[in-house]
Amino acid sequence: MQKVQFTETVLRDANQSLIATRLPYYKFAPILETMDDAGYYSLECWGGATFDTCLRYLDEDPWERLRNIRATVKNTRLQMLLRGQNILGYKHYPDDVVKTFVERSVANGIDVIRIFDALNDLRNLDSAVTETVRNKAVAQVAVAYTTSPVHSLENYVRLIKRIEEMGATELCIKDMAGVMSPSEAYNLVRAVKSESKLRLNLHTHCTTGLAYMTLLKAVEAGADIIDTCVSCFSGGTSQASTNTLLYALTQLGCETDLKADKAKEINDFFKPIQAEYIASGLLDPKVMGTDADALVYQIPGGMLSNLVSQLKSVNAMDRFDEVLAEVPRVRRDLGYPPLVTPSSQFVGAQAAQNVISGERYKQISKEVKGYLKGEYGTPPGIVNPELISKALGGELPFTGRFADILEPGMERGKLNAGPLARSVEDVLSYIIFPQIALDYFAKREEIEKNVVPYNITRKE
Ligand code: CO
């Protein structure tokens, strides 16, 4: 009988997709022990946007959060999401910083690192994968899934073969916008499973309503692990429900280690938290609905909320539909990058800029210029040559591996992080989010002066 395992995403992706990653540690701490006993393959609990929000909004040290989770979750694998050479930031970092970050993540408790690159440029995965394996953690390498005239099943299978050759321990197909259809999932998973013996995870979102069908077909085709979320934080821009899929897949004869009674207990625990976020307005019921338009625009959840706040800030919400229609055009001009952090951010911002200013590419953002210069890697398709000459003048794009021309960053980071940085972990926080980390370090001094375990006593 086929075995299916579950990765629970409530602490990371669902948190990020539905409530802007605003779930503080003290709110979920009481359920960690139950989560550890439930029989999940892993708990996705760190990385992605959690790192940034801990420092920026929650007055939490992300490293301390990880150590706290690890102290309670003794048996289940802890998983994080890492943006390859972007680490958890929005630009490329030098190799010594990437390697130190990976080494410290494992040392603080991470077992599985899901590593991806927005452009699927394998040169941007290499350092992180090598270092993850060297530290004896699981390097689950993800391909960012998108559909476009330059993306095909054959290309994805070839890419995944190369990922296996580069030393990945596990594979993941990452459908961040929820655009993968059941038939695409079935064909791709089957093709990958016939080429590779590695365990395969399918990651998708409910945004377009396809997720349950897509996951079912993926399991039928041999997917080993699926990403799901407790039902009260499932749906919409989040993952499909753990509890529902467990019920359906068990009935279909799949074997799994996940216990239904524990999964129910965890869901019950999160129900009042979900209600609280709805009441405060942070969880907008709109993001929990189904949006088939996303099949055309391919906009992941986080990008949508960024676009809305960008348009609101210049009083241009009435241009929202025009901006949505401009996104696929900008994407075509840029050679069809998958829309995932950081490309989702700068494609969206450029599309908004093009509409608001009334002239396409009147202003070209620093990030789009960087992309055209080759600072993020090689675009999947052909970039509009007019746009290149407009953005770069006569300058030729860089075609090498961008991190190769970056100066090492750890020593300089140590010098600049200042006296309040207490550890290598603090230096890493500083290198990735300099000002935000410095503000947090100062706040931490205050918090420690005033209260005992602040993450337990503190009120919002
Ligand atoms: Co996701």
Task: Please give the structural blueprint.
Layout: E1 5-8, H1 13-19, H2 25-28, H3 32-37, E2 42-47, H4 50-56, H5 62-72, E3 77-82, H6 95-107, E4 112-115, H7 126-134, E5 138-144, H8 153-165, E6 170-175, H9 182-195, E7 199-204, H10 211-220, E8 225-228, H11 242-251, H12 260-280, H13 294-297, H14 301-313, H15 320-333, H16 343-356, H17 366-373, H18 385-392, H19 410-416, H20 424-432, H21 434-450, H22 454-457
Helix pairs in contact: 6-7, 6-20, 8-9, 9-10, 11-12, 14-16, 15-16, 20-21
Bound molecules: cobalt (II) ion (CO).
**Total domain count:** 2
Gap between N and C termini = 48 Å
Q: Count of DSSP E strands?
A: 8
Q: Assign the CATH class of the largest domain.
A: Alpha Beta
CATH superfamily of the largest domain: Aldolase class I
Summing up helix and strand content along with how strands pair, one would put the structural category as alpha/beta
CATH topology of the largest domain: TIM Barrel
Shape: globular
Question: Brief description of this entry?
Answer:
The chain is α/β, with parallel strands linked by helices. It has 22 helices and eight strands.
Characterise this structure.
It is built from 22 helices and 8 strands. The chain is globular and about 65 Å long. The protein has helices at residues 13-19, 25-28, 32-37, 50-56, 62-72, 95-107, 126-134, 153-165, 182-195, 211-220, 242-251, 260-280, 294-297, 301-313, 320-333, 343-356, 366-373, 385-392, 410-416, 424-432, 434-450, 454-457; strands spanning 5-8, 42-47, 77-82, 112-115, 138-144, 170-175, 199-204, 225-228. It has an 8-stranded parallel barrel, surrounded by 5 helices. The N and C termini lie far apart (48 Å). The relative contact order is 0.13. It is of the alpha/beta class and 460 residues long. It has 2 domains: 5-280, TIM Barrel; 285-403, Orthogonal Bundle (Cyclin A, domain 1), CATH 1.10.472.90. The structure holds cobalt (II) ion. Cobalt (II) ion is lined by residues 13, 176, 203, 205.
